[in-house]
Structures are given as structure tokens and as C-alpha cells.
Amino acid sequence: MTTGQADGWLAALAKERGDLDRSSTAERVADKLRAGVLEGDIAPGRQLNEKALGDALRISRNTLREAFRLLTHERLLVHEYSKGVFVRRPDVADIVDIYAARRVIECGAVRRWPHAADAAKQAVRDAVALGLACRERGDWTGVGTANVRFHQALTALAGSARLDEEMARLLAEVRLAFHVMGDPEEFHRDYLPLNEAIVTRLDAGEVRQAEESLLTYFDRAEDHLVTGLRAKG
């Protein structure tokens, strides 16, 4: 990420400080930083400057440090002694563990399709449509964001706020791995058609086949990420 991009990210974050009033908690600060990871704005290896973030959000250093502690517990940040706090780079063991959890959560949620609210089903379709629109204009980072939203929407079919929160944490780690892979087009171009196929099967009432397609998707994506991380050392 260039200095200009970093400054732009801080400026955008500063515009949201109105959401963080005196009653704000470290959890809400952590939510905003996690969202930056999910949207692809904060890359692995980036150092988080306490003063810059504190000034941008107008929060105390203690509140920010508590948010850092929460995100370190979620494996999104790492504290390096005498150096500071950095966005963590997932390793192979992380990816294997994350995909084990995703298979359980998302496949279980997909089985809820026949009973899910219409709005929840539409959110799944909308995420695929967003990915297609981003592809059309050559915005492959946007395709990655749409992919995250697709999997969030699949999880939301279960109607569980707790699962939604857990998936946000898991997908934030996955998004960091996306960054490590490099070229977003090379990584994402083969997965958007799989998302389309899953939605098509769900709309056709082929829930079991959609779940099988999702499992195939996970096998492919896990292998892709593991191979890529190993190659990049």
C-alpha cells in the first residue's frame, strides 16, 4: 500500500469518527478496524500507528489499545516487542483451521435456504451481482469484497447473530490471505462463476447440490491459498 493510499484510508476513517461518541467502546473501534480488513483497505504487515489512529477517531490511547487487544485475540493483529502493532499475515495452519470452521458454518447455513427470509436470500443474489458488476469494470479488488459479502450472506441464512459475528472474524483473516496472494484478478476470477453456480442451484431448490458445490469451492480455495502461502514463504 502506497503512502497516498494509506493517507486516504486514514482520511476515510476520520470521516467516520462521528459514529464513535463518548459512549464508544473498544469493541466498536475494533469493529471499524475489522471492517477495514474485510473491505480490503488494510493489508497484512501494515503497522498501526497509535497516534494517527487516535487522532483520526478522536479516541483515547487506552481505548485504542483495548481495541488492539481484542483484534490480537482474533488473530488479526500482532504485537511485536519494541516495534509496535502490525496487521497479521495468516499462515498455512491458519488457513486449514479457518476452512474447517467455514465448512461447518456455511454448509449448515446453506441448508436453511428453504426456510430463510426473502431478504436473506436476496442478499446472497445481490452479492453475486455485485461481483459480476465489479468484474465488468475490471475492479478485481471489488470482486474480492463482493466474494466476502457473498459468504457473509450465506452465513446469514442461518439467522444467527453469533454466527454472523464469527464469520466476520474468519473472513477478515481470509481477506488478509487474499492480500498475500498478490494479483487479485488471478486469485478471484475462477471463484465468481462458482458463486453464480451455487446461487443458481439454490434458486432451483437444489439445496443438497448447492452444498456439494460449496464444499468443492472450499476444497479448491483452501488448496489455492495453502499453495500460494507456501510459495511466498
Can you give a write-up of this model?
With 233 residues, the chain is mainly α. The chain folds into two domains: 3-87, Winged helix-like DNA-binding domain superfamily/Winged helix DNA-binding domain (Arc Repressor Mutant, subunit A, Orthogonal Bundle), CATH 1.10.10.10; 92-231, Four Helix Bundle (Hemerythrin (Met), subunit A) (Up-down Bundle). It is built from eleven helices and three strands. Strands 1-3-2 form a three-stranded antiparallel beta sheet. A hairpin with a 3-residue loop joins strand 2 (77-80) and strand 3. The longest helix has 25 residues, at 207-231. The protein is globular, with a radius of gyration of 18 Å. The two termini are 20 Å apart.
According to CATH, what is the class of the largest domain?
Answer: Mainly Alpha
Rg of Cα set: 18 Å
Mean pLDDT: 90
Structural category is mainly alpha
Q: In what order do the strands lie side by side in the largest sheet?
A: 1-3-2
CATH architecture of the largest domain: Up-down Bundle
Summed up, the domain count is 2
Helicity level, as a percent range? over 70%
Termini distance? 20 Å
Q: Could you give a short account of the major beta sheet?
A: 3 strands, antiparallel
User: Can you count the helices?
Assistant: 11
SSE string: HHEHHEEHHHHHHH
Q: Give a count of the beta strands, DSSP E runs of length 2 or more.
A: 3
Low-confidence stretches: none
CATH topology of the largest domain: Four Helix Bundle (Hemerythrin (Met), subunit A)
Sum up the overall morphology in one term: globular
Strand content: under 5%
In the CATH hierarchy, what is the superfamily of the largest domain? GntR ligand-binding domain-like
